[in-house]
Design goal:
With 380 residues, the chain is α/β, with parallel strands linked by helices. The chain has 2 domains: 3-168 and 357-372, 3-Layer(aba) Sandwich (Rossmann fold), CATH 3.40.50.2000; 179-352, Glycogen Phosphorylase B (Rossmann fold, 3-Layer(aba) Sandwich). Helices cover 43% and strands 13% of the residues. The protein has helices at residues 16-31, 66-80, 109-112, 120-136, 145-154, 179-188, 208-221, 240-249, 267-273, 288-295, 306-312, 324-336, 338-352, 357-372, and strands spanning 3-6, 37-40, 85-88, 100-105, 139-142, 162-164, 195-199, 229-233, 256-260, 276-279, 300-303, 317-319. The chain is globular.
Length: 380
């Protein structure tokens, strides 16, 4: 068995899908023989991309002819390398393959919430191409039961073709007691002594405007809590300008800190420095930041949307993401009720142990094995 993985998203500042690709590949390498797992970018880097990923040649990130390479040159490369199965972690396999294909669909945000799109052209392309890609894939991986339900709602695919494999949490996400390292991180990102953390790309579906309004409501109820700042960490996207306007209208510029993108190596330290993670997202397929935060011993406040209810369970505070009053009330309770804070911290640490990348890799390997024993469809 020889497995190929499309690792193109490792070439960027990694967010959810990039982290999924990296961790899955790294743990599959611990399970499979060296010559049975190949990682590809636009050039093909079969040698280890990890560590360090930063050494990858950046010039390939925005290669204009990527789709031509993907659909016409990549299949020949896979054949030359003797690959039996290609796994596409971000629903982007070649349209025509003579080998088996597994695709991971992380969510159906393009279909479910078109108003939250970041780019019209990318949204239009995704809506057109995703049903085709689901059809040509031999098997589909969903990262939660909630994501599976959405896939079945929007794509022409049989339920029996979908396997649910949860994402994981790396061992580095844990309570950290090294004060020197923590303080060094605090200085590097200019973080306050106490803060609420929001982590993720600054885009409409992360619901940051409602979070900022809720935070403002908390301070109106108790001005002494103003010593607890709000730190927004993540890449700037389409929602940034509107978010800045909201902050300015509320005259809250001094209370909110933007860090920009945080490399994964620093995330455990950032989580450990925070008092609470606030994650009132409007839509997720899984929701990795809450699990990472819980593994670090930080209570989390999340939306009561299906995926986050499934993943977080009763280990986090659940709020209506459209109700700023509800977000504010739950946030206030977490910040002021020490017994509740301690209870949620303990529940979070316990719940996070259910998720691991080793488990994700082993269950994904079972999907590969299942796929390879079924004859290739003539429709591909």
């Amino acid at each position: 068995m020889r497995i190929g993985i499309n690792g193109r998203l490792l070439l960027k500042e990694k967010t959810g899908v990039g982290n999924y690709t990296e961790n899955l590949y790294r743990h599959l390498k611990k399970i499979l023989p060296e010559d049975e797992i190949l990682l590809y970018d636009d050039e093909r880097k079969n040698e280890l991309l990890y560590p360090p990923l930063q050494k990858i040649q950046k010039r390939w990130i925005r290669k204009p002819l990527y789709l031509l390479w993907l659909n016409f040159l990549f299949p020949s490369l896979l054949k030359k390398d003797g690959v039996d199965l290609l796994h596409s972690p971000n629903f982007t396999p070649p349209l025509h393959l003579n080998i088996k294909s597994v695709v991971t669909f992380h969510d159906m945000v393009f279909f479910k919430f078109p108003e939250l799109r970041d780019s019209y052209l990318y949204w239009k392309y995704s809506v057109k191409i995703t049903p085709i890609l689901a059809k040509v894939a031999d098997r589909v991986i969903a990262i939660s039961e909630s994501a599976k339900k959405d896939i079945l709602e929007y794509l022409p695919i049989d339920e029996g073709k979908i396997d649910v494999v949860y994402e994981g949490v790396e061992d580095s996400f844990r309570p950290i007691y090294d004060q020197e390292n923590l303080e060094d991180c605090r200085k590097r990102y200019n973080l306050p002594s106490k803060f609420i953390l929001s982590l993720g790309a600054i885009e409409p579906r992360k619901n940051l405007i409602n979070l900022v309004k809720a935070y403002a409501n908390v301070l109106k109820v108790n001005s002494q809590l103003s010593e607890i700042k709000l730190v927004i960490a993540g890449k700037r996207a389409s929602g940034y300008a509107e978010l800045l306007k909201t902050i300015k209208d509320l005259s809250f510029q001094d209370q909110i800190i933007f860090t920009g993108y945080i490399p994964e190596a620093d995330l455990p330290l950032i989580y450990n420095l925070a008092k609470v993670l606030a994650f009132p997202s409007l839509y997720e397929g899984f929701g990795l930041p809450p699990i990472e935060a819980m593994a670090c011993g930080i209570p989390v406040l999340v939306s009561n949307i299906p995926a986050l209810r499934e993943v977080v369970g009763d280990a986090g505070g659940l709020v209506n993401p459209l109700d700023t009053g509800d977000i504010a009330k739950s946030l206030y309770n977490l910040l002021t009720d020490s017994a509740l804070y301690s209870k949620m911290r303990g529940r979070g640490l316990s719940r996070s142990k259910f998720f691991s990348w080793e488990r994700c890799a082993r269950e994904t390997l079972k999907v590969y094995e299942k796929t390879l024993v079924v004859p290739k469809s003539d429709t591909h």
